[in-house]
Design a protein that fits this description.
By secondary structure, the chain is mainly alpha-helical. It has helices at 4-28, 41-59, 63-90, 98-123, 125-129, 134-140.
Length: 161
């Protein structure tokens, strides 16, 4: 993890994961936190453990971690986005509660964040295969410093005994 973007995305992943833990615990204890509720309590707990594994895999720059993160959150929150959008558009003459909008925003974050992580992993794949080391590349990969032989160069092959 040498990129600043990767560090930022992992921090957002951890913060969103902690928020989902708080929402799951609050729902279990029957607390109301601004109307944020898990879609499915049992699935939420399973996803918390899956996302913990995904965070570790994303830190290790494994593409499977980003893909698993995208699939799990995409399926879980994608259905909620579709349902909330349908509820917002189907309400005739009245406006939906604020809880619907808060859950819609959280679901959108839950879909956008894995997409950003996956794009970051795909963009950084070439750098993992061909890493750059500033300590040695200036010498080994710079033709400007290659020694050029001229007419004064010693072409004798002396033997050392």
């Amino acid at each position: 993890m040498k990129n600043f973007s990767t560090w930022i995305l992992v921090m957002f992943m951890v913060m969103f994961w902690i928020l989902r833990i708080v929402i799951a615990v609050a729902a279990q204890l029957k607390w109301d936190i601004a109307g944020m509720v898990p879609l499915n309590q049992q699935m939420e707990i399973v996803l918390l453990f899956v996302v913990l594994v995904c965070i570790i895999l994303v830190v290790k720059r494994k593409l499977i971690g980003g893909l698993l993160y995208l699939l799990s959150y995409g399926i879980y929150f994608g259905v909620d986005i579709a349902n909330n959008m349908q509820n917002i558009f189907n309400v005739a003459g009245t406006t939906p509660d604020l809880d619907v909008y808060i859950n819609l925003v959280l679901s959108m974050v839950g879909v956008i964040l894995p997409i950003a992580v996956m794009l970051d992993l795909l963009a950084d794949k070439n750098r993992k295969n061909h890493p750059k080391d500033k300590k040695t590349d200036w010498f080994y990969k710079n033709e400007k410093f290659d020694r050029q032989l001229d007419e004064r160069a010693d072409k004798n092959n002396y033997r050392t005994l």
